[in-house]
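User: Show me a protein chain along with its predicted structure.
Assistant: Here is one chain, sequence first, then structure tokens.
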Amino acid sequence: MNAVDTNVLIYSHDPRDPLKQNKAVALIASLTDGVLLWQVACEYVSASRKLSAYGLSRQQAYTDLRRLRVAWTPVLPSWPVIDKAESLMVTGNLSFWDAMIVAACVEGGVRTLYTEDFDSSTSAISGVKIVNPFI
């Protein structure tokens, strides 16, 4: 199973960087075994306001999430994710939010996380392969 971080969803609507936008759109369309992480869904709605000038309304963000919720497996938060995130913050030197994303991936059976938010030297964390789809 695969998951995308919030930045991938945002880039799919951001015309300021057509290369990233095209890569994000293609990646999202290609993931038939996608996982929609709760944190990503929440961050996406929150971040959508930053692209309102480019046509991404909050309503469109909710519409996108409804579509993804049907196509992908949703992963809701649990207490073990918080415990795993705490451990990842210490052992992996991750921020709280990055640790939460990786912990949710571990719990949800995600094998690959597509994101640009991790150091380029990071190839895997706790068995989750980290891939920057924009390089």
